[in-house]
Amino acid sequence: MTGMVEKRGFGIWLSHLGMIIGIAIVCFPIYLAFVASTVEQQDIVHPPMPLLPGDRLIENYSEAIFSGINAPVWRMLANSMVMALGIALGKIVISILSAFAIVYFRFPGRKTFFWLIFLTLMLPVEVRIVPTYEVAANFGMLNSYPGLILPLIASATATFLFRQFFMTVPDELAEAARVDGARPMRFFIDILLPMSRTNIAALFVILFIYGWNQYLWPLLVTTDPEMNTIVMGIKQMFPSGDDVANWPVIMATSLLAMLPPVIVVVCMQNLFIKGLVETEK
Amino acid sequence: MEKRVTFNGWALPMVLLLPQVLVTAVFFFWPAGQAIYQSAFIPDPFGLKSQFVGLGNFEFLLTDPFYLASFKTTAIFSSLVTVVSMSAALWLAVMADRIIKGAGAYRTLLIWPYAVAPAVAGVLWLFMFNPNVGLASWYLDQLGYSWNHVLNDNEAMGLVVLASSWSRISYNFLFFLAGLQAIPKSVIEAAAIDGAHFWRRFWTIVVPLLSPTTFFLLVVNVVYAFFETFGVIHTITSGGPQQATTILVYKVYSDGFVGQDLGSSAAQSVILLFVVGILTVIQFRYIERRVHY
User: Fold this and answer.
1) What does the angle CA B82 – CA B85 – CA B87 come to, to the nearest 5 degrees?
2) Which residues of chain B lie closer than 8 angstroms to A5, CB-CB?
C-alpha cells in the first residue's frame, strides 16, 4: 500500500540522507561536548579544538565526580536524584489520592476543590518566584530537600491526568466492589491502582525529567554548594572574571547531567511518548 | 462528566485531598496572593516598612522603557524560537514519515535533546560559540566574521534562540510525526495518482490536515519560550548585553533577586499571570474544539 506514493527508491534515499544530516546537526553539540570531556584543557584553549575524542576520559570524569569545582559532582548527582525522585513520586502520590477523592466521592465543596486545583495549572513557578522563595525561607527550607521538592509539586497536571483516566474506568467495577461491601480504599488499592500502572509509569518518566531539569528554583533555594543540583551547579563552575573556565571538567559534568534523563527517555521511549501526549492533552 | 457510582462518606475524601490542598495552599495560593498584595506596595530601601502605592507599580512599569523593551524582546525571542524550532522539526518529521524501515532508530536519536535540560543546552551552545575557544566562533573567524555575543546584541539573541530551539526540536518532532502518521495514506495516494507531485501534495493536503497539530504546537511553544527558557538565558547571556536578551521571566528574577525591587517584581509577576491566563484559555478553547472533532 504505502509503496505506491514513492515507487522509485530515489525519494526514500533522499529522505534517509536528509534525516542523517538532520540528526548529525541535532546531535553535534552533544558530540562536541563529549569530545571536550576527553581532551586536555590545552587542546581547547588553543582553538580549533580536536574533533575526535582524546585519551583523558577517565582522568576528566574522575576529577569531575570526586573533586569537581565547588562541590564534587557525585554529590550534585545525588541531590538531583533526590529532587527528581521526590518531585515525581510526591506529585504522583498526592495527585492520585486527590483524583480518587474527586471522582469517586460526593462531598460538600467538591466543586470548589476541583476549581482550586484547576487554577494551579495556570501559574508556573517562574512567575511566582519571589513570594515562593519567601515562604520557603520562612519555613527554614533553604538548602534542604523539602525546599527543593515541595514548591514544585504544587501543581495540578497530574491530578487532571488521573481524573481523566478514572472517568474512563467502567462504573461496573466500583458497583461490584460496593455490592461486595468492599471499603473505598480496598477498591482503590486492589482495582484502581493496578489499572493505573501504565499511566503512573508514563507520568513518572515525564515528571522525573521535569524534576531533574529544574534550574531556576534550585538556583534560588540552594546557596550551599553541597546542596546544589547538577543542572544548576554547572553554571556555578564557570569562574567569575577573566579566569579561563576548566572546560574538560565542565563538559564532563554536562554529560553526566544529561545522562540519567537520557537513559530514562531512551529506555522507556514508549512510556515517555504516551506520557508526553497525555500530559499535554 | 460525573460518575454514576460513588462511595459514601465525606471524612475519607477530605483526608485524601489534604496533602494536595496543603501543598497547594502553602506553595501556590499563599505566594500568588503575596505577589498580588506586594504589587501594591513599594518597600523602603531597608525593608522595614512599605508604602502603599495602589496601582503605582503597574503605572510605572507600563511607562518604563526598560520594561516595554523587555516585552518587545520577549515577543521577538518567542516568535523566533517557535518558528525556528517548529520548521526544523516539521522538516525532520516529513522525512521520517516517508521512511518506513529504520524510522524507530531515527526517532530514538532525535528524542535525545528533550532529556537535556535547557540550562545544559545553554552550556553546550555557549561552548560552541564562546568567543575565545568555541569551535563555531573559530570557524566564523576564519571566514572573516568576528563573533562575540558578549558584546553584540543580535548575536546574543541569535545564540539564545538557537539553543532554545534546539532544546525544543524533539518535542515538536514527536508531535508533528504523530500528526503526519494520522493522515490517511489513501488521501495522499489518491492525489499522487492524480499526478500531484510531492510539494503540491504537501501544501494542499498535508498542511491543512496537520493544522490542528500545528496550532497546538504554536501555543505550547510560545508558553515554552515565555516560561521555560530561563536556564538557557541565564547560562548563556544572563540577560545581556545590557538588556538585549532580558525576557519578561528573566526580568522578574533580575529585578526581584538581583535588584531587590520587590514591589516591581511582584507587579511583573501579576502581569505575567495575566499572560499565562490568556494563553491557557486559548489552549483550552482549542482543546475543547479538538474533542468535538
Assistant:
1) 95
2) 185, 188-189, 192
